[in-house]
Amino acid sequence: MSTLIRNGTVVNAHSTFAADVLIEGERIKEVRQGIPSNPADHVVDATGLLVMPGGIDAHTHLDMPFGGTTSSDDFETGTRAAAFGGTTTIVDFAIQGRGTRMRDALDTWWKKAEGRAVIDYGLHMIVTDLGGAGLEDMDEMVDEGVASFKLFMAYPNVLMVDDATIFRALGQTAKNGALICMHAENGGVIDVIVQRALAEGKTAPIYHALTRPTTAEAEAVHRAIAMSEIAGAPVYIVHLSSEDALNEVREARDRGVPAFAETCPQYLLLSIEELERPDFEGAKYVFTPPLREKKNLGKLWDGLKHDHLQVVSTDHCPFCFEDQKILGKDDFTKIPNGGPGIENRLQLIYHHGVNEGKLSLNRFVELVSAAPARIFGMYPRKGVIAAGSDADLVLWDPSADHVISAKTHHMRVDYSMFEGFRVKGNVRTVMSRGEVIVDRGQFLGKAGRGQYLKRQARGGAWS
Ligand SMILES: [Zn+2]
Predict the structure, then answer these.
(1) How far does the centroid of ligand 1 lie from the alpha carbon of residue 316, in Å?
(2) How many A from CA of 92 to the centre of ligand 1?
(3) Is 286 helix (H, G, I), strand (E, B) or coil?
(4) How many angstroms is it from 322 CA to the middle of ligand 1?
(5) How far is the CA of 73 from the centre of ligand 1 (A)?
(6) How far is the CA of 60 from the centre of ligand 1 (A)?
(7) CA angle centred on 370, ends 369 and 374, rounded to 5°
(8) CB within 5 A of ion ligand 1: which residues?
(9) 199 CA distance to ligand 1 centroid (A)?
(10) CB-based contacts of 69: which residues, under 8 Å, 6+ apart?
(11) Contact in structure between 13 and 366 (CB atoms under 8 Å)
């Protein structure tokens, strides 16, 4: 099976050029102008369209247990929604149970994805326990293609690990070349503030945000980077949400420290006022870190532009408003933490970044595809339109208008965080390893066609 995409404009992280793209089987065979169409089985006309590498969302939580419930998208509905939004690869998180082996968690998450995933997926491992054979387990995971580990400095008694554990994990990656991803918030301090708020009868959703100061995020970012410097290993801060935290990353990078960070559309486009919506609707915006004051938004966009931030991911972790968010009706600490976004990342960052002049087209591709591919050990198989790479690509119509709404989205969740947002620029066709999986709003993929991605250690964070 071969496909020729003709007359499009290829956009990679560092170049934009008119070219045809010849796909043979699952891979890109050739990228140049004037490829003859006669040997190709299919010819696609991409006149007026951008041909970009498929999006890579390095932070998703499908089918994830949290607070007595489970995120509402599984690997089928979540990856299908991702495909509709131009994302062709995700990296989700397996969670090690305390006192259990990482292998068990990996098996559990493979089972969740098997037969369901529509697009290719990698897995990070969330480390909750380094007792027993923990450090050996990390090496074993790297051999299985789990080239990154996430640790929590927040959520005491659930996911939080102490500094010694973080430091030991960093030390192990200094040897095995994996990457440590940090949820950076000072969980101990936040917990005290939360208990104080509850004791004062403050139970509404807004207190989720008011009990998690940006200083608690910045402190943890600083500490995470300091520990990574001592250990001699890079560190990647997930879902960075505030100027205070950004300043810590920038300061470290200016000193040449290999510190990396991602942010998410919600932190770039929404602010704390959303949590004050009446009728408990603020709960739709309860996730961690919380939305911040408006003054942070522009700083985060600047951070993306100037490479103080390297990646935009979603932290997609949907819970339905009607029967899941409601669990916290009388106590904000019981609201399942998370929001939906896997489908809208490219639309939102393209529109508000590229159309509004905050990001170049190439920087956009870097942030949503090339950089996560490199940092997480998938490059150049993913993240670039080039001969030899997987034929994961998006034909993007820069003139398409779209209004984001829960009525039309494909995520299995009953609300949108971006309801009514108007965007210009949207997906026309999506290919995953040479197969058209979305075309003009039609889903043509199949559950279970997505493959587990073995990712390489010593990815882009190490060079
Ligand atoms: Zn997350």
Answers:
(1) 7
(2) 9
(3) coil
(4) 22
(5) 14
(6) 6
(7) 120
(8) 315
(9) 28
(10) 319, 324, 327, 336
(11) yes
Q: Could you tell me if 361 and 11 are in contact, meaning their C-beta atoms sit under 8 angstroms apart?
A: yes
- Please state whether 299 falls in left (phi above 0), alpha (psi between -120 and 50) or beta: alpha
19 alpha carbon – ligand 1 mean position (Å) = 37
Q: Compute mean pLDDT per 10 residues along the chain, 463 residues long, and list them.
A: 97 98 98 92 97 98 94 98 98 96 98 98 97 96 98 95 98 98 98 98 98 98 98 98 98 98 98 98 98 98 98 98 97 97 98 98 98 98 98 98 98 98 98 98 98 97 91
Assess contact for 347 and 15: CB atoms under 8 A.
Answer: no
C-alpha to C-alpha distance for 286 and 420, rounded to whole angstroms: 19
11 vs 30: CA distance, rounded Å: 15
* C-alpha count within 13 angstroms, C-beta hemisphere, residue 456: 15
Chain-centroid distance, C-alpha 48? 29
Backbone φ, ψ for residue 273 (5° rounding): -55, -30
Q: Give the Å distance between the CA of 315 and the centre of ligand 1.
A: 5
How many A from CA of 144 to the centre of ligand 1?
Answer: 22
For the record, the structure tokens of 11 come out as 């956009």
Question: From ligand 1's centre to the CA of 183, what distance in Å?
Answer: 8
Pairing status of strand 87-95 against strand 120-126: parallel
Tokens, residue 16:
């934009």
Distance 179 CA to ligand 1 centre (A): 16
